[in-house]
Amino acid sequence: MTTPDDDTARGDARFEDAPLSDRPLRLRAEAADDVAVISALVQDAVARAAEVMYLPRKRRVVLLLNRFRWEDAETARQAGRAFERVRSALQIDDVTAMQARGIGRPDRDTVLALLSLAFEPDPAAATSAASDDQTQTETETETETETETETEDDGADAEDAATAVPATASPPGALLLTCAGGAAFRIGVETLSVTLADLTRPWVAAAGIPEHDADHDGADDGAVDAGDGPTGDRAGDRAGD
């Protein structure tokens, strides 16, 4: 997990005078394990359907969220103070396609409550990568056999060169964004690059901490908080730059 220096969170200046505990999150996921961390942080975030923006020319998807601050929940509980939400941008880059289920253009004012975000590697790419790894292993074995007939010094140099494996980017695949009520988004990506950036100061979560039980999917809590806080219009301009 890395902290980006791009333009996504230019609203960070708002936090200059805030104590460390109130500083904004600025995280980037470039591996599946990192996506799981961001998924936990955006669980129960809410957004209107119109705030889910696909920008094909920039190969980018941006979601403007009212995010429950799970990272602060235990501290708030122990301190006996209110739980909080914050306006955040979830940005996905290197996007190749986007599909929506359970939501259409006429539903742009519908409030979506996020449940999870997961990365699903492209099976074809995974097979290709495995084949490349096998080829690399065979090449290394052949090279090591050949170097046995060379001098000790030359053999050591050849072995070092054969075992140097260049770094590779994350594999292509799809990000699966699941929402309460059956809505979902499938976002195809060429490489894995997901950024979460807080844009405003936190505010009190009027509905308190979201609840998860067999008869409750979190949508009601999110709907109550969806209109409470910044409208996010200017924040959206920043995130989409």
Short description, anyone?
With 241 residues, this protein is of the alpha+beta class. Helix content is 30%, strand content 28%.
Description:
- This protein is of the alpha+beta class and 241 residues long.
- It has 6 helices and 11 strands.
- The protein has helices spanning 32-42, 70-79, 123-147, 152-163, 219-225, 233-239, and strands at 26-29, 46-48, 52-55, 60-68, 84-93, 95-101, 111-121, 173-179, 184-189, 194-198, 203-204.
- Strands 1, 3, 4, 5, 10 and 11 form a 6-stranded antiparallel β-sheet that branches. It has a 5-stranded antiparallel β-sheet with strand order 2-7-8-9-6.
- A hairpin with a 4-residue loop joins strand 3 and strand 4 (60-68).
- The chain is globular, with a radius of gyration of 23 Å.
- It starts with 25 loop residues before the first strand and ends with a helix.
State the helicity in percent bands: 25-40%
Unreliable stretches covering 5 or more consecutive residues: 5-18, 155-168, 214-225, 231-241
Kindly state the number of beta strands. 11
Instruction: Tell me, rounded to a whole number, the average pLDDT.
Output: 74
The helix-strand sequence is EHEEEHEEEHHEEEEHH
Taking all Cα atoms into account, the compactness measure Rg is 23 Å
Keywords:
single chain; 241 residues; alpha+beta; 5-stranded antiparallel sheet; 30% helix; disordered C terminus
Outline the secondary-structure elements.
Layout: E1 26-29, H1 32-42, E2 46-48, E3 52-55, E4 60-68, H2 70-79, E5 84-93, E6 95-101, E7 111-121, H3 123-147, H4 152-163, E8 173-179, E9 184-189, E10 194-198, E11 203-204, H5 219-225, H6 233-239
Antiparallel strand pairs: 1-10, 2-7, 3-4, 4-5, 5-10, 5-11, 6-9, 7-8, 8-9
Helix pairs in contact: 3-4
